[in-house]
Hints:
Helix content: 40-55%
Oligomer: single chain
Amino acid sequence: MDKVTMAVGQGEVVGLIGPSGCGKSTLARLLLRLIEPTSGHVIFEGCDLIKLDGPRMRKLRRRMQIIFQDPALDPRMPMIKQVIEPLRIHFPDESYAHHREVAEDLLNEVGLRPAHMVSYPHELSLGQCQRASVARALSLSPDFVVADEPVSALDPVTAVQVIDLLQRLQQQRRMAVLLISHDIRLARRMSRRILVMGAGRIVDEGPTEVVFEKHTNQRSHSVFHHASF
């Protein structure tokens, strides 16, 4: 990472695009302090996350969530418990019945039926597992969500469905989202502003349509993957 400066406003959806290996996922983890930077600052509502100790950082964790490319679900837990778990950890004083009600509502909202809620990850499709992953990330009502290549492992039809789901949920909850993708067309579907990354740097940025036209021009030597969405 080399002198990267970026911002995501409250309720804003920003696309971060670039080829594989350019540093997108590393940047995402630095923003959430899942890995520690060697220098720099990460400001969240005026607070520098890098300067926070463990207890203070944990208090902010629930306001910042990530959706990974791999749903990374616990194979030993049914879907309903996957969503209850973060609620149990962050809100231990609330009842299990309340946590279960919240989890059921979320799983229903992302398109999973009651039968899916008691199913284990290996019993569901990858698309269904990713929907559960979205529900889990939103269970704590975060203000900021990083969606790190959330649909790159899905078939095109399912990918569009999940992106449209994320867009609907973002609009309903008015949360800020950083959508990471190697596919500029996918980022265009949801983002109003796009950042382009290359070799650990932000090499271009601007309104979505401006960046899209520039990097999909026939004369452009863009290395981004252009799937049909």
